[in-house]
């Protein structure tokens, strides 16, 4: 259903503790998986009890209010009452206010949850609840190969756009802008998307591996987590390729940690998050100095943010306050968004936007949807990767950075 003045649906949800089902990905629908997972633990969704769609500049705030209305009308039985139990919805939002792609909240018919200590099943329905049984693990379908190549913007065109942006930054039009480029391919009919998710989860276990409405990926960047009145986030901005051996790898990390260009880019991103969270958490703080985060394909500069909420905000309220951060848009944010709209020859869709889940009590986990790809109904696969452009940026180096960021998705679809 579209968000509107229609009557609020009355959902019934019931959570029961279950024996550990083991791996979550084999439980999923092969063509429309719903997943939120890290290190093998998380939430798997099966079926759809309710689908909500949102568009426009207030899409996230409207989604937050709509969810609160649904929660208020729902009948929830949750004897476990810990993170991820009870009534939940998976969500994925469009990056731009004017995107042609809708933003969604999807309430599954069945949620299988798994932590290191406990496992559970939540049944959800409008009306009679489905049986409280975990679906059987199903073997993956046949292997497939998708070759992703340049989409609306060639590598040469991307270098030209970056060169112009550097000039505009030096002329004080803005301080930073994140510019993306796209690659596209074609998924074979009947392809099992669980194979892609499995590759991402195995290759990037410390990232959030997600699937919502054909949008899949494995993001290292936590936009915001709300749990029991505490708010945390992880800001990633500034990156470098991994070295070819131990010595060169350490040298790459050291160069990143001391790079004025990357430190400036990172500072803009951290300040953006702190400013957005401060009205909701006056004590919010960030790590004093950024750390280097090692991923299989990249080094990142990272900062952890944490605070205590004082106004009862839900995870979706904070998602609305935070998006878009300087890490995915630029500084000043409004100027950077206008610049992106002017120079990027495509609609970003849900790339670099919030993806995650929300619970009935307002807790939830949301990531910045990078290292991601949208699979359209016709099988078209579109992936994006971007780089933060500042005054010291070199176009060729920024192009190389996007290639490194494409690597998880390219390899996962290549099988």
Can you walk through the features of this model?
The protein has eight helices and 23 strands. Helices cover 27% and strands 32% of the residues. Strands 1, 2, 3, 5, 8, 9, 10, 11, 12, 13, 19, 22 and 23 form a 13-stranded mixed sheet that branches. Strands 4, 6, 7, 14, 15, 16, 17, 18, 20 and 21 form a ten-stranded antiparallel sheet that branches. The model has no long low-confidence stretch (mean pLDDT 93). The chain is α+β, with helices and mostly antiparallel strands and 415 residues long. The longest helix has 20 residues, at 395-414. Helix 2 packs across helix 8 (395-414). It has one domain (12-132, 145-414): Anthranilate synthase (4-Layer Sandwich), CATH 3.60.120.10. It has helices at 59-73, 155-170, 194-203, 246-257, 260-277, 315-322, 333-343, 395-414, and strands at 12-18, 34-38, 41-46, 50-54, 75-77, 88-92, 103-107, 110-114, 119-125, 149-150, 176-186, 208-212, 215-219, 222-227, 230-241, 285-286, 291-294, 298-308, 330-331, 354-359, 364-368, 372-375, 380-389.
What's the short story on this structure?
This protein is of the alpha+beta class and 415 residues long.
CATH homologous superfamily placement: Anthranilate synthase
Distance between the termini: 35 Å
Could you tell me the mean pLDDT? 93
What is the level-2 CATH architecture name?
4-Layer Sandwich
Number of domains: 1
| CATH level-1 class | Alpha Beta
Contiguous low-pLDDT stretches (5 residues minimum) are: none
Set down the secondary structure blueprint.
Layout lengths: L11 E7 L15 E5 L2 E6 L3 E5 L4 H15 L1 E3 L10 E5 L10 E5 L2 E5 L4 E7 L23 E2 L4 H16 L5 E11 L7 H10 L4 E5 L2 E5 L2 E6 L2 E12 L4 H12 L2 H18 L7 E2 L4 E4 L3 E11 L6 H8 L7 E2 L1 H11 L10 E6 L4 E5 L3 E4 L4 E10 L5 H20 L1
Parallel strand pairs: 1-5
Antiparallel strand pairs: 1-9, 2-3, 2-12, 3-8, 4-7, 6-7, 6-20, 8-9, 10-11, 11-19, 11-23, 12-13, 13-22, 14-15, 14-21, 15-18, 16-18, 17-18, 20-21, 22-23
Helix pairs in contact: 1-6, 2-8, 3-8
């Amino acid at each position: 259903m579209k968000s509107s003045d229609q009557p609020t649906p009355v959902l019934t949800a019931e959570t029961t503790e279950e024996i550990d089902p083991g791996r979550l990905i084999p439980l999923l629908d092969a063509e429309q998986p719903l997943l939120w997972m890290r290190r093998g633990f998380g939430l798997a969704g099966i079926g759809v009890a309710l689908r909500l769609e949102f568009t426009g500049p207030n899409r996230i705030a409207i989604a937050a209010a709509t969810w609160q209305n649904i929660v208020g009308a729902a009948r929830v039985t949750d004897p476990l009452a810990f993170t991820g139990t009870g009534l939940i919805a998976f969500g994925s939002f469009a990056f731009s206010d004017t995107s042609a792609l809708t933003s969604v909240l999807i309430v599954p018919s069945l949620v299988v949850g798994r932590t290191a200590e406990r496992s559970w099943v939540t049944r959800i329905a409008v009306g009679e609840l489905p049986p409280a049984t975990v679906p059987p693990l199903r073997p993956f379908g046949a292997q497939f190969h998708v070759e992703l190549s340049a989409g609306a913007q060639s590598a040469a065109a991307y270098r030209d756009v970056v060169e112009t942006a550097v000039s505009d930054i030096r002329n004080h039009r803005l301080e930073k802008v994140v510019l993306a480029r796209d690659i596209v391919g074609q998924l074979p009919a009947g392809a099992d998307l669980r194979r892609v998710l499995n590759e991402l989860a195995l290759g990037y276990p410390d990232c959030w591996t997600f699937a919502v409405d054909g949008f899949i990926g494995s993001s290292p960047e936590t936009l915001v987590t709300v749990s029991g009145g505490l708010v945390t986030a992880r800001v990633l901005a500034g990156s470098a390729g991994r070295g070819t051996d131990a010595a060169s790898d350490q040298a790459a990390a050291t160069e990143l940690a001391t790079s004025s260009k990357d430190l400036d880019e990172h500072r803009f991103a951290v300040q953006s998050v702190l400013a957005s969270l401060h009205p909701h958490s006056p004590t919010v703080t960030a790590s004093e100095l950024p750390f280097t985060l090692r991923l299989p394909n990249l080094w990142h500069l990272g900062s952890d943010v944490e605070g205590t909420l004082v106004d009862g905000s839900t995870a979706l309220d904070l998602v609305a306050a935070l998006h878009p951060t300087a890490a995915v848009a630029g500084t000043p944010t409004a100027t950077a968004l206008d610049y992106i709209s002017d120079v990027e020859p495509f609609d970003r869709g849900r790339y670099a936007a919030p993806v995650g889940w929300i619970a009935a009590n307002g807790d939830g986990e949301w990531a910045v949807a990078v290292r991601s790809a949208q699979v359209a109904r016709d099988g078209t696969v579109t992936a994006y990767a971007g780089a933060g452009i500042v005054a010291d940026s070199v176009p060729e180096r920024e192009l190389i950075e996007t290639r490194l960021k494409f690597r998880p998705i390219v390899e996962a679809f290549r099988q």
